[in-house]
Write a structure and sequence with these properties.
By secondary structure, the chain is of the alpha+beta class. It contains 7 helices and 7 strands, in the order ααβαβαβββαααββ.
């Protein structure tokens, strides 16, 4: 949790030692593999592209630009800065600011190392999450409608986790449990109506007519009803999809396959 603060402290200390004036800080608490969730980084690139009011960018190391598998991406952002007249200064690297053959070679190596680090980290997280799911625990992600997260320590339920809450101790686990009774009733109503022959469009229309909000506090749509009907969580099964940025709907064809991108545990929690 102190990583960003420590990086900023390092950069400010370097700026003070070199008599640089810090005019702006761009800081993101997000993965370096993609930039779509790095709002501050996108602002930096936009500022650089439209007449920046600064002469240089202080960066801790090469990996701060990007950890994308395509290492040219990180190089592109530095190239964009330099062609816009903005110098790139690496504070925690052994090579200097000059564009010498040694510096260029080291940057290429460091970019490849950053990408490999990201891939290795992803493999570790994948393995850890898969193991938890097979044991009936929920590793991370959103909670389905009408269910809730319960913090468990050695099989004993401690408390309900509210949205945004996280477990603290490594030996604690998170399980699903039945949530709001009124929402549980809505899920049963959806399944009962569908088994009775109603279409997803009819079911959604009836829920809207009765003024029943969805999990997003919005009007039910046929797509939402369809998603409920296809969600294994309501049968008590825990299913975890390794999406790699894809939408869940894009992975539905993997539901009954042997793909290692889908991990499941039957009877992980009470069924609705």
């Amino acid at each position: 949790p102190d990583s960003l603060a420590a990086q900023e402290e390092l950069l400010r200390a370097h700026a003070a030692a070199q008599a640089h004036e810090v005019v702006r800080v761009y800081s993101d608490s997000a993965s370096g593999k993609r930039i779509d969730k790095r709002d501050a980084f996108q602002r930096l690139i936009d500022d650089v592209s439209h007449g920046p009011d600064f002469e240089a960018v202080l960066v801790r190391d090469v990996s701060r630009w990007s950890r994308a598998e395509n290492t040219d991406e990180a190089g592109y952002y530095e190239f964009l800065c330099r062609t816009s007249g903005v110098q790139v200064l690496y504070v925690d690297e052994s090579f200097g600011p000059e564009q010498s053959p040694y510096a260029l070679l080291m940057k290429s190596v460091k970019r490849a190392m950053a990408a490999e680090f990201s891939l290795e980290k992803a493999r570790t997280v994948h393995s850890s999450h898969a193991r938890l799911v097979r044991q009936g625990f929920w590793p991370t992600g959103s909670v389905p409608y009408a269910l809730k997260r319960v913090l468990v320590d050695e099989g004993i339920e401690i408390r309900v986790l509210e949205p945004g809450d996280r477990k603290v101790l490594s030996n604690q686990r998170v399980k699903f449990a039945l949530g709001d009774p009124s929402q549980v009733g809505i899920v049963r109503r959806i399944f009962t109506a569908y088994v009775g022959g109603a279409s997803v469009k009819m079911i959604a229309g009836d829920l809207v007519a009765d003024g029943i909000p969805s999990s997003r506090q919005s009007c039910w749509t046929p797509g939402m009803v369809s998603y409920v009907l296809q969600n294994d969580a309501y049968s008590g099964a825990l299913v975890y999809w390794f999406r790699n940025g894809e939408r869940p709907s894009a992975l539905l064809n993997l539901r009954d396959s042997d793909s290692d991108r889908v991990v499941r545990c039957e009877n992980a929690h009470p069924a609705i």
